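Records of this kind hold a single protein each, on a pair of labelled lines. Below, a sample record shows both lines together.
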Amino acid sequence: MSQDFDCAVLIGRFQPFHLGHAALLTEALRAAPQVVVVLGSAHRARDAKNPFSWQERAAMISATLSETDAARVRFAPVRDHYDDGRWTAAVRHAVDGDTPPRRVALIGHAKDASSYYLQRFPGWTLLPLPAQGELDATSLRQIYFGVDDEVAADALLATLLPRAVAGYLKGWRALPAFAPLRIEHAALIENRKRWGSGPFVTLDAVVEIASHVLLVERKHAPGQGLWALPGGFLDGRERLLQGAIRELREETGLALLDSTLEAALRGVAVFDHPDRSLRGRTITHAHHFAITMDRLPEVAGSDDAAAARWAPIGELATMEDRFFEDHFHILDHFLDLTR
């Protein structure tokens, strides 16, 4: 074991943890006496790209370690945030703990443009590793959710995953979450065949009245049954504000005049993270309307919404793992839910 570093850091989503990840973790354990595994995309709803909770991913990884090595590894769940500055600060805070380590090694492999995060930690020493074969978590999820022959899928996964993780996934298939995620996986493939992978322009509406915000329950995959902001795709000849108001009415039946909504507009923010949507590159323009009224207007789900409801702002933080894609973070941007 090297004494050059006090701590080694490994950052990833590990959806799922495969043999390439295991090689990186082995290097981290060689580099320092203590290892922090940062589990990204934490605290969010399950979806076809992020099927496993951070606790389940921690359990998978722990199952691959000896008792001695497991005692040297600490898991740190971190939200996506979709804001590079906030995300970097959250990772540093998670690694530092009560006593910030002085000498930190960052273990990583620059596989593509998504690996730019490795350059965001000045003061940490990057220890880059070469690619570990052709392993890719996206392909592994395609096998797990997309291959109908479970015996064949398990046999293939057994060659690409640590034995403990392969066994874990075989058992996880029996959990209630597996079937809807498999349906969502198939729906996303069909969606991309029909519409391509973008870029798409969408609108979302954050409507705030009397310390409540208006939410809709998604009727269809992806995200069926999850809470979301009213919104949708921009029509060909619409202005952004017109599109946001149209989608708001179509999904909730909110009976307020255009002039009332226009006067209540408090801000517009663009959310353009390349990974914010499972449907492909989707750039959304979120409109924040703060309306002064004593009574909450009647709403009802329609169009692509199974239901509509007014949610108390004070309860939104407890609903984080029930929101579609990055909609919790859009609310957080306007309403400061996590700061």
In short: The longest strand covers residues 200-209. The chain has two domains: 7-133, 200-335.
